[in-house]
Structures are given as C-alpha cells and as structure tokens.
Amino acid sequence: MRIDIISALPALLESPFNDSILKRAIERGLVEVIVHDLREFGLGKHRQIDDYQFGGGAGMVMMVEPIYNCIERLKKERDYDEIIYMTPDGELFDQKTANSLSLKQNIIILCGHYKGIDQRIRDHLITSEISIGDYVLSGGELAAAVVSDAIIRLIPGVLNDESSALTDSFQDNLLAPPVYTRPADFKGWKVPEILTGGNFHAIEKWREEKALERTQARRPDLLN
Ligand code: 6GU
After folding, report:
1. Which of 168, 197, 213, 215 is deepest in the core (most CB within 10 A)?
2. Rounded to the nearest whole angstrom, what is the distance from the C-alpha of residue 155 to the centroid of ligand 1?
3. Is a pLDDT exceeding 70 seen at residue 162?
4. CATH architecture of 2-152
5. SS3 content of the chain, % helix, strand, coil (to 5)
6. C-alpha span between 12 and 189 (Å, rounded)
7. Distance from the alpha carbon of residue 142 to the mean position of ligand 1, in angstroms
8. What number does the ligand 1 atom closest to the CA of 139 have?
9. Would you state the pLDDT for residue 163?
10. What's the CATH fold of domain 167-223?
11. How far is the CA of 6 from the centre of ligand 1 (A)?
12. Strand partners, 36
C-alpha cells in the first residue's frame, strides 16, 4: 500500500512515521508513506498557496492551483483508489472506514489549513472527506496521522501478532477487556485469579463477559 500525504506543514508529519510500529511497517516495505510539501507547488517567487476569500471574510483559503498541480502530478504516476480530504465537516472516521481503507492500493490524503481549501478541489478531485471527531484542529496533519496509523496497523504483517488487530476495541463493536501483566500481586492489587489459573476456556469466557460489561457501561451505543 502507498499513502501520499499532501501538506503545507510537512514537519508535523515527521515523527508519527519515524517511530515504533509505523516505522517498522515502512522499513519492511509493507507500506510507503510519502509526504509532499504543498509549498513546492506554490505560485510565484513567494510560492503562494493561499489567498483571500471571494466575497470577503476572515481567514485565508488554500488555492486551487497548487493542490491541483500536486494531485495531477501524482495521478500521472499511478491510479489512486481514494483522494481523501481531511476536514472537520467530513464523514466521521471509525474502525469500519479504517478496515476498508486498509484494503486499498494507493491513496492520497490532503491536509487542509487556514479557513479550508477552495471548494472546486472538493467538487472535482476529492473522492471522500474524513473528520476524526467533533472538535476543530488547526490543520489536517494530526488527523491524517491518526487515520494513517489506524489504516497501517491493519495491513497484514504490520503487527507481530496478526490476530491482535482483530481483538482490538471496536472490531466487533465491543470495547477490549482489561489486561494485566506481572506481577500478579502489586502491593495487594491483585490480578483476577481466573487469568493466572490456566483454564483457557474459562479465560476466553471471562474476557467476553468483561468486554460486554465495559461496553454496556461506557459505550452502550455500540451495542445497538
Ligand atoms: Cl480532519 N481537520 C481539522 N482541521 N479538524 C478536525 C478534523 C480534521 N477532524 C476533527 N477535527
């Protein structure tokens, strides 16, 4: 899989892909993540990428031309399954969308900034619009990192224990059960006995019960 991220602030996208699971996935060749600096497609000697909005109003708008040129350059090289625009008025991101995006070959993620991007890009080039929640971030970069992380960890071979992505919270509309590691007794705070007893059938049953209990208590909406 290949993810091309277009950003006016590419530095914001450096560290998420240079550590831990995502870094290893890239090193193993399971995913390619290429960040494109929109400024390189800016107009004139100042490499302008934003301008005042028609009709007046506060805030700059990202211009059509630099984004168009960047996307068209990429589209010449390969076909893209999705061209995603990160925006707080997009469709709410969830595990189902992550699952479906993880099956794609090539995607572009465009990060918005300032007051947003010229609507004509959204009308003519964007195939889907994603928001990561009902709050406003200064730009789409952190949201793009969130979406990329959720997608990449689902690619086969990225997680060491492949089954572990399947037992994530949300995969079956249930939150994950509690987990424990050694020591079994820390200052009198004890691990549930069933987990140290070695009865795997009983442990599985306990985990299912706890997952259901936790979901009922915290996210009853998931059970409908
Ligand atoms: Cl994708 N972008 C911005 N700027 N804010 C957000 C968001 C995206 N998702 C939630 N808030």
Report:
1. 215
2. 24
3. no
4. 3-Layer(aba) Sandwich (3.40)
5. 40, 20, 40
6. 40
7. 8
8. 4
9. 61
10. Trp Operon Repressor; Chain A (1.10.1270)
11. 15
12. 6
In Å, what is the CA distance from 141 to each residue of 137, 147, 159, 209? 9, 10, 24, 38
Residue 67 confidence class, pLDDT cut points 50, 70, 90:
very high
For residue 138, the CA-to-ligand 1 centroid distance in Å is: 8
Which ranges in the chain belong to alpha helices (H)?
20-27, 64-77, 95-101, 119-124, 141-152, 163-166, 193-196, 200-218
Q: Alpha carbon of 216 to those of 7, 44, 209: distances in Å?
A: 40, 57, 11
**Lookup result for tokens 């969308």:** 97
Structural domain spans, the chain? 2-152, 167-223
Whether residue 166 is predicted with pLDDT greater than 80 in this model: the reply is no
Closest CA to 129 of 111, 145, 149: 111
In one-letter notation, the amino acid at residue 212 is: L
The alpha carbon of 136 and the centre of ligand 1 are apart by a number of angstroms equal to: 5
Asked if 121 and 64 touch (Cβ cutoff 8 Å), the reply is: yes
Question: Do residues 110 and 87 touch, judged by C-beta distance below 8 A?
Answer: no
The reported pTM is 0.94
Query: Which of 84, 135, 137 to mutate for ligand 1's pocket (most ligand atoms within 8 Å of CB)?
Result: 137
